[in-house]
TrEMBL record:
SUPFAM superfamilies: FAD/NAD(P)-binding domain, Succinate dehydrogenase/fumarate reductase flavoprotein C-terminal domain, Succinate dehydrogenase/fumarate reductase flavoprotein, catalytic domain. The keyword Ribonucleoprotein does not apply. It is an enzyme of class 1 (oxidoreductase). InterPro entries: FAD-dep_OxRdtase_2_FAD-bd (IPR003953), FAD/NAD-bd_sf (IPR036188), Fum_R/Succ_DH_flav-like_C_sf (IPR037099), Fum_Rdtase/Succ_DH_flav-like_C (IPR015939), NadB (IPR005288), Succ_DH/fumarate_Rdtase_cat_sf (IPR027477). It comes from Subtercola boreus. Residues 4-370 form the FAD-dependent oxidoreductase 2 FAD-binding domain. Its cofactor is FAD. Keywords: FAD, Flavoprotein, Oxidoreductase, Pyridine nucleotide biosynthesis. This is L-aspartate oxidase. The keyword Nucleotide-binding does not apply. One of its GO terms (molecular function) is L-aspartate oxidase activity.
């Protein structure tokens, strides 16, 4: 049996480990405890066109509309066509979706043309999915390594041959494998306001870049419109608005009626920008999500997790509005893959939020993320079962072929390297105030300069600050080693330093891409280029062994 390393224990990594364990010797690695991932905190549900009034074509159309012209249509069609079968597979693996009498309940969310969103445990879908899959993976022969940090990929002869890891004790080891699957999630911790848990520091994406794999769409970070305007930014699901809640300014005006024909059910990027504009008008204070029309009893039954979070913050959503603000939620960018999870680096696969399949384009449709994770995890396993040693042998050519004919082709000159003048990481020009590095400072700078609203001047200044921090850390003067005091588990200094290095690298890459995209599209809004420009109807890609971005 071939040896397979899976990095990450969210829905994508768990599905790969469970299914691949039938034909491979699987080692599943997670830097925290098994089950601590973005999946665990997902509320909104999973979208699938599996009900009589709906169709795959409608789901495809909704996904393309949200993606603002950058979706890869072939990938979207795979997602929507295979989604129903993958839902049935999740049920087989123990996920109990809400329903009655054998009929699955399904609701409506923003930018969906039909009710097609499945939930489990009301607003605890991710937790229910994670719990079932953790139980399932424990029943396989997979080796499970918790508290183990994958610091880098082992590359030999131009292909990935394993991973370098750091243990909680600080000990370093190398694990060899015939193939590696990155399912390590996104990088919400780039921002001071995020719905993502502490573990989302983009470690797999950063490691893939350092190893020479291609990344794409890094400028597109989705900001969820409605997180609680309170410490922790607890997510208030789209489903609340789907049930009829509305957004109001402090004076009671329902401002989304002025912003989009679909009002509160407009795409996430539209709602997030409208909220941000309204917050500017009212001194930075969050807007009001009014769910009082739903009633306290219904709200508590339909949204138990949100209801509990509201009560912890002294709010009864059945009788008073919830103050909300946008927060970083999901990264559309990641490691470039084809329709089987293969990256440009032989032997390396990527699935879930760590991957960029082209499904989401410039803006993800609500409740498509868990679906993408499970659909493409299954497809990666199918490729691996063909032969782990051979499946990635020509992965670069496979990706070029996969991306060449869609709405946003990869090859043939349609995709352009980030221009050297704008794509460089930047020398210090003296405009940015140099200040000591800290994660808090990086997160605040990303929020201010690379957040919901962006402009060229702030992006350029942010790059200068990132360059100064990177120079200080490479010389050793900018590294302040100290344990995190948040959470119930002690965090080793080595993990913290590695995470900070990854966040700084990804901040520079994302900001460079945002500066290079001189237009507004989907989740990327430039106030100095507020219109969509057809000249930018392509993907910006980054690879460390090319002059797409100058080396650090």
């Amino acid at each position: 049996m071939s040896a397979l390393v899976v990095v990450g224990s969210g829905i994508a990594g768990l599905v790969v480990a469970i299914e691949a364990s039938r034909t491979h010797e699987v080692t599943l690695i997670t830097k925290a405890e098994l089950g601590e991932s973005n999946t665990r905190y997902a509320q909104g549900g999973i979208a699938a066109a599996m009900f009589a009034e709906d169709s795959v074509a409608s789901h495809v159309a909704d996904t393309l509309a949200a993606g603002a012209g950058l979706n890869r249509r072939a990938a979207v069609e795979v997602l929507c066509a295979e989604g129903p079968a993958r839902i049935r597979d999740l049920i087989r693996l123990g996920v109990e979706f809400d329903g009655e009498g054998g009929v699955l309940a399904h609701g409506l969310e923003a930018a969906h043309g039909f009710p097609r969103i499945l939930h489990a445990g009301g607003d605890a879908t991710g937790s229910a999915v994670e719990r079932a899959l953790v139980d399932a993976v424990r029943g396989t022969a997979s080796t499970l390594l918790e508290d183990t940090f994958v610091s880098d990929l082992l590359v030999e002869g131009g292909r990935v041959a394993g991973v370098h890891v750091v243990l909680r004790s600080g000990e370093r080891r190398t694990l060899r494998a015939d193939a590696v699957v990155l399912a390590s999630g996104g990088a919400g911790q780039l921002y001071s306001h995020t719905t993502n848990p502490r573990v989302t520091t983009g470690d797999g994406v950063a490691a893939a870049y350092r190893a020479g794999a291609e990344l794409a769409d890094l400028e597109f970070f989705q900001f969820h419109p409605t997180s609680m305007d309170a410490p922790g930014n607890f997510l208030v699901s789209e489903a609340v608005r789907g049930e009829g809640a509305v957004l109001r300014a402090e004076d009671g005006h329902r401002f989304m009626l002025d912003a989009h024909p679909d009002a509160e059910l407009a795409p996430r990027d539209v709602v997030a920008r409208a909220i941000a504009r309204q917050m500017e008008l009212q001194g930075g204070r969050g807007v009001l999500l009014d769910a009082t029309g739903l009633g306290s009893e219904f709200f508590a039954q339909r949204f138990p997790s949100i209801s509990a979070a509201c009560r912890r913050n002294g709010v009864d959503p059945g009788t008073e509005p919830i103050r909300v603000t946008p927060a970083a939620h999901y990264w559309m960018g990641g490691v470039s893959t084809d329709d089987r999870g293969r990256t440009t680096l032989p032997g390396l696969y990527a699935v879930g939020e760590a991957a960029c399949t082209g499904v989401h384009g410039a803006n993800r449709l609500a409740s498509n993320s868990l679906l993408e994770s499970v659909v493409y995890a299954w497809r990666a396993v199918e490729a691996l079962q063909g032969s782990a040693a051979a499946a990635g042998a020509d992965s670069g050519a496979a990706i070029a072929s996969a991306w060449s004919g869609g709405a946003a082709p990869w090859a043939g000159g349609a995709d352009r390297a980030i221009p050297e003048r704008e794509g460089r990481f930047g020398s210090l020009r003296g405009r940015a105030e140099t200040r000591p590095f800290s994660r808090d400072a990086l997160q605040q700078l990303m929020w201010d300069a690379v957040g919901v609203h962006r402009d060229g001047s702030r992006l350029a200044d942010a790059l200068e600050q990132f360059a100064a921090w990177a120079e200080g850390r490479s010389s050793g003067t900018g590294r302040t080693i100290g344990s995190s005091t948040s959470g119930s588990r002690a965090e080793p200094d080595a993990f913290r330093v590695l995470e900070d290095d990854n966040l700084l690298l990804l901040a520079r890459l994302a900001t460079t891409a945002a500066l290079a995209r001189r237009e507004s599209r989907g989740a990327h809004f430039r106030s100095d280029f507020p219109e969509t420009d057809d000249a930018f109807g392509h993907h910006l890609v980054a690879r460390s062994d090319r002059r797409v971005l100058e080396t650090l």
